[in-house]
Amino acid sequence: MIKRFVFVVLLAGFFISVTGCITAMEWSTRDEDDDEYIPPKKVAVEKKKNSEKKGYNPQFTDEEEEIPDIYEAVVDMPYEEADLLLRSALEEENFKIIKVSHVTKGMEEQGRKDFWKDMNIYLVCKLSDGYFVLRHNPQLVGFCPYRVYTYRNKDGLLVIGMVKPSMAVRYMGNPDLKAIEILKKHDFQLKRIIDEITSK
């Protein structure tokens, strides 16, 4: 009877110690002898640190949230002057204007005189960056080229606006940190262009 009791106690102790070891173990498919081996928990921490350093974050920061999805600013100047300034500023930032759609002109050709004046849509892009934005997410081509636009409001002031490029991030099927960085960079470049023109 005593032997059985001692055997049960030893067996219970063995199971407890084995269970503790299993709980403490970190499983990995890599060989620990490999010089590049990093335990899984450390990998997660490193990725988080690197993403904070580089500014990569699928969630928008407070600074980026200040730019609404549709950003507009107004200026009191003739459209022809704003058009020249806009084309020049876009070129300086290496944006290519693919096409300008003259919406007001099209409406007037249809006989509609009670429409917004000076409404135009500039389709702009950076082909060099387009590769990185679209290579893993071809469905985002619907957001490219970007839209910058003008129209004259009811007060007679010229509105210059844009649809924020990084809106496309919400529709990424395959999150791509490089593409996110580029789209957010373009947000600020286009905003800066609009702000510079409308501050004159």
From TrEMBL:
InterPro entries linked to this entry: DUF302 (IPR005180), TT1751-like_sf (IPR035923)
DUF302 domain mapped to chain residues: 103-165
Coiled coil: none
Protein name: Uncharacterized conserved protein, DUF302 family
Lineage, broadest ranks: Bacteria, Pseudomonadati, Aquificota, Aquificia, Aquificales
